[in-house]
Amino acid sequence: MRKSILQPFPFIFNRINISQSTRFCKSTTGSHSLRPTPSHKSCMLNLWGIFTRNFSTRNISGRLFYRKRPKMIPRYKPKNRRSCWLEGCPQKKGVVVSVGVVTPRKPNSGKRKIARVRLSTGRTVTCHIPGQDHNLHTHSVVLVRGGRCQDVSGCHYKVIRGKYDLLPVKNRMSSRSKYGTKLSDAVRERKNIRKIDMHITSNLDREIFNTLQLPNWIQLDGTYKQEPVGPDEHVPFDVFSFNSRWRSIVHYKKQQQGE
Question: Which residues form a coiled coil (predicted)?
Fold first, then answer.
């Protein structure tokens, strides 16, 4: 009976040389300590028959460790961690939660208009509203892009002017495309006139146009051009590509005829 009871634990009656199966770790002070190394752990497990399970201690550190762990980790982790909540997209659609004004960091002292926007991914971020004045309020739909405000803490996104419920900036002339302002008809017409006058038409341009392009030239109203270009008239607008192309062709043909 005694033999049957002690048979599952034969290691109790075996004399074990613990000094041979245990490794000592040398500390920085030169003394030896009995800190368990992998071989020491395995020896104690074999000696006492204790089974352990490994677990992660990443979230166990300090007081209230269960509150310090982030609630959600984004699936997409780009190099720019400040715009990571866009998840790799250039823009994200969102709904305004609140609108406010904050003071910037030193040495700036102006007021900065910001909005808390809930993105389509469910994340709420702080966005800067560029330009003067805006018409945003709660429940407004906006389009959010990446880009931080240099003097506002925690503001790493901007809303796009002229998209959805956010109106563009009025009477904006410089960098108007960044603020959603369209080009007026008067300014567009003035720029077209300047483009026509930027190039000086020579007699060679008129001669090449009358000989090569005139039979197939279609005007803006959809009709073919019948009369050749006069000595004081300008060549039609695509004279830039026309000159660079046909001058090289004429020069090549003259070289072939000379040979």
Answer: none
CA dist 67 and 154 (Å) reads 21
Backbone angles phi and psi of 254, in degrees to 5: -65, -35
CB 212 within 8 Å of CB 225:
no
Fold classification of 81-179 is OB fold (Dihydrolipoamide Acetyltransferase, E2P) (2.40.50)
- What ranges do the domains of the chain cover? 2-48, 81-179, 190-258
- What is the tens place of the pLDDT at every residue in 235-257? 776 544 555 556 666 666 777 78
Burial letters 189-227, b for 16+ CB under 10 A, else e = eeeeeeeeeeeebeeebbebbbeebeeebeeeeeeebee
Overall residue count recorded for the chain in this entry: 259
